Amino acid sequence: DIKGFVFDLDGVITDTSILHGNAWHQLADSLDITWSTKLGNALKGISRMDSLEMILKAGGKANDFSDAEKEKLATQKNTNYIAEVNKMTPANILPGMKDFLDGLRANGYQLSLASASKNAPRVLDKLELADYFPKVVDPASLTHGKPDPEIYTKGAALLNLKPEQCIGVEDAAAGVAAINAAGETSVGIGDATELAAADMVFSNTAAVTLANIKAKLDN
Ligand code: G6P
Ligand code: MG
């Protein structure tokens, strides 16, 4: 029986995936690296430094920067990202997500957060959702990022639940892979082709309801 939900944040609860993408796009432009939607999608769910490495590699500049310079570039991106996050309000919660979270709580499901973002607490605060997630996996504690299962394994452990008692909710292919590898049920939100590995896919957050999930679980 499902007893808990382990949530991704960016692109699931709020549209910060767009803000992350814009901030990386800006950095890529400043380095004369050609941006593409495909690159933007591949970065979803990927940690800050891993994202930077992927962008530099895509631009053929993997070996052009020292570690100190890379730290500086990542900080630059993060400063731009935080400026956008600071403008956020509860109006930035994606359609239906507040009702979904309320319904889960009302039905006794436990919730934890499995976001790779070190900015997740700030985002939750801006959305006034911190109370919903007393259990947040600390991304600084991870040895491996998504698609490694570690973050979703920890998300279930924080709830004292077995992976098979948990549903993971993701917008990224790397995240769906992590949920599956952790042995949890995967709910993907977004493009069905991109998220084909998920146990179920919804095209948008408004369609993600407890009733819709239960209907697909029974199938
Ligand atoms: C999430 C986002 C990624 C982001 C990562 C790290 O997984 O989907 O786009 O790179 O978090 O975020 P941070 O806020 O720590 O740079
Ligand atoms: Mg995401």
Helical residues, percent: 40-55%
Enumerate the strands of the largest sheet in spatial order, edge to edge or round the barrel. Answer: 2-1-3-4-5
User: Kindly, what is the distance between the CA atoms of the first and last residues, rounded to a whole number of angstroms?
Assistant: 15 Å
Structural class of the helices, strands and pairings?
Answer: alpha/beta
Low-confidence stretches: none
Bound molecules: 6-O-phosphono-alpha-D-glucopyranose, magnesium ion
Task: Provide the fold topology.
Blueprint: E1 4-7, H1 16-30, H2 37-42, H3 48-58, H4 67-85, H5 97-106, E2 110-113, H6 120-127, H7 150-157, E3 166-170, H8 173-182, E4 185-189, E5 200-202, H9 210-218
Parallel strand pairs: 1-2, 1-3, 3-4, 4-5
Helix pairs in contact: 1-4
The site of magnesium ion (MG) has 10 residues, from loops.
Brief rundown of the structure:
With about 220 residues, the protein is of the alpha/beta class. It has helices at about 15-30, 35-40, 50-60, 65-85, 95-105, 120-125, 150-155, 175-180, 210-219; strands spanning about 5, 110-115, 165-170, 185-190, 200.
Features:
binds 6-O-phosphono-alpha-D-glucopyranose; alpha/beta; 219 residues; five-stranded parallel β-sheet
Molecular structure report:
By secondary structure, the chain is of the alpha/beta class. Helices cover 44% and strands 10% of the residues. It has helices at residues 16-30, 37-42, 48-58, 67-85, 97-106, 120-127, 150-157, 173-182, 210-218; strands spanning 4-7, 110-113, 166-170, 185-189, 200-202. A 5-stranded parallel sheet has the order 2-1-3-4-5, with helices on both faces. The longest helix is centred in the middle third of the chain and has 19 residues, at 67-85. It is globular, with a radius of gyration of 17 Å. The model has no long low-confidence stretch (mean pLDDT 97). Magnesium ion is lined by residues 8, 10-12, 17, 44-45, 171-172, 175.
